[in-house]
Design brief:
Layout: H1 28-41, E1 44-47, E2 64-68, H2 72-84, H3 86-89, E3 91-96, E4 102-105, E5 109-111, E6 124-128, H4 139-144, H5 154-162, E7 168-171, E8 174-177, H6 182-219, H7 227-241
Antiparallel strand pairs: 1-2, 2-6, 3-4, 3-6, 4-5, 7-8
Helix pairs in contact: 6-7
């Protein structure tokens, strides 16, 4: 939990071309923040990547997301959370239109009556820093400090590929690589591991029964050395294990 001390970054004055990837879609960092807020407060997005002339400043870069929380109390709780963890989450600025057009920036804090538009709006505008723009890890991972290169590498890349989620997902208008849903992929992988463990236990039990049967068969004596008389005995024992078939 760290309040950011990174200087404010002006997207509109950066000279970055908003028409090329990855700035022609919503920041994976903002999508992961939106997903966390959706799960915790039921937030919806009013828009993230909005090309000009419909939008200016940071939205054409996919570097801002307008989030509505459905009430002032969850909005204030979310604002407090985002500022308290702004370093880990790469929060560049927050605009709170409802409360006297106030704007938060690292090293500055709140500025009131800022020229940010939408007076009295019941949503907040959240921007990402350029450094964290592509960081689509789940918020929980960012807060615990776990490291993961972007794009995904190693076991996490294999995990996402295994569940066939290397596609583009959409969430309330925000688009980002499916790798931002790594938390869900890990959950599926855990379920698969549990199923595999159960299957292995069943196979081990079947092998144990087979070993026991083989031991029993080896101890049997064939009456008079008659092989044909021996067959029904083996069949009876096999049927007990459910391995005999027909």
């Amino acid at each position: 939990m760290t309040v950011s001390t990174a200087p404010y970054f002006s997207w509109s004055g950066s000279g970055i071309d908003s028409n090329v990837a990855p700035y022609n879609a919503c920041s994976p960092n903002l999508v992961s923040i939106q997903d966390y807020c959706r799960r915790r407060w039921g937030v919806t997005s009013l828009g993230c990547h909005v090309p000009p002339p419909a939008s200016t400043k940071s939205h054409p870069y996919g570097a801002a997301n307008d989030l509505r929380f459905g009430g002032r109390s969850p909005t204030l709780e979310a604002i407090e959370f985002l500022i308290a963890n702004s370093a880990e989450l790469g929060v560049n600025t927050i605009h709170d239109y409802f409360d006297h057009q106030r704007m938060w920036k690292p090293l500055v804090g709140w500025t009131y009556n800022a020229p940010i538009g939408s007076p009295g709006g019941d949503w907040i505008h959240v921007e990402t820093t350029p450094l964290q723009f592509l960081n689509g890890r789940p918020v929980e991972d960012k807060l615990t400090g776990s490291e993961l290169d972007m794009p995904l590498t190693g076991d996490d890349a294999k995990l996402v590929a295994a569940v066939n989620w290397e596609t583009i997902l959409e969430l309330d208008g925000a688009r980002a690589p499916a790798r931002v849903w790594l938390t869900e992929a890990r959950k599926l992988a855990g379920q698969a591991q549990q199923a595999a463990a159960a299957a292995q236990a069943s196979a081990d039990a079947a092998n144990a029964k087979l070993d026991a049967l083989q031991t029993q068969v080896a101890a049997l004596e064939v009456p008079g050395g008659d092989v044909e008389a021996f067959r029904p005995i083996v069949r009876q024992e096999l049927d007990k294990t459910k391995l005999g078939g027909t």
